[in-house]
Each structure stands twice: as structure tokens, then as C-alpha cells.
Amino acid sequence: MSQGNNDVPVSVDRxxxxxxxxxxxxxGQARACTVREVLDRVGGKWSIGILVAASQGPVRxxxxxxxxEGISRRMLTLTLRNLERDGLLHRRVxxxxxxxxEYTATPIALELYESLVTxxxxxxxxxxxxxxxxxxxxxxxxxxx
Length: 145
Description:
Elements: H1 27-42, H2 47-54, E1 59-60, H3 61-67, H4 73-85, E2 89-94, E3 100-105, H5 107-141
Antiparallel strand pairs: 1-3, 2-3
Keywords: DNA-binding, Transcription, Transcription regulation
GO molecular function: DNA binding
InterPro entries: HTH_HxlR, WH-like_DNA-bd_sf, WH_DNA-bd_sf
């Protein structure tokens, strides 16, 4: 059992990857792994910004590139592909030259939207306090910043 949140049993051996391995997962292990994979995807560094933007309505690749600060074209492409694969984004290609591509949040992503906005607002409100706590911790423990 993991420390902390006891809502989801996590009994997967830390050395074993979620997908693969020789031994089959027990039902509890498969469920915990799936939950972890979903949380990793939607909580990923770039996913939150993309999903928030796409939840406002159709958004194009270049718009996402501008509004998701720091993301590279390659990482944006990979993240969009993964979010589409997971059913969180719908990709629509218009038959124009050059092709016009729009991404829209799916109903399950729209259900997640409020939680993502709450999380990003919380992070914005507390980022200074967290930075100060880190600096104090590093001073106290001699850890370089």
C-alpha cells in the first residue's frame, strides 16, 4: 500500500513498468496502473495548458504554441497526439492548402476542465509561498537551489 492517499491501492512493484513485463497484473494492480497513467497524462507538464486552451473552443496548433509557454513544436506534437489517443482531444483536419488543423476538447476533457482551472489558479496563488518555502528549506539543509 502506498503512503498518503489510500483511495487507490498501489501494489505494483516499483521496478515493473505499467505496460509489459512477464508476470500478468492482478486486477488491483492493473486498475492502479491505469489510474496512474491517466493522472500522469492529464497532470503532465504540458497537458494542463493544452487542455485548458482547447476547452475554450477549437484551437489551432500555432495558437497552442503561443499560449503554452516554453513548449517546443516537437513536444506540442507529441502531447497533442497522446491527448488525442487518450480521447481528451478531437483533431479535425480541413482540406485546405495548407491544411488547417483544429483541436477541440472532448466531453471527458470538458468534465476535467473545472478541476484543471482550480489547480492552475491554486498554483498561481501559491507559487511565491512555495518558492519561499523551497529557499528556506535549501538554506536550512544546505541544498543548492
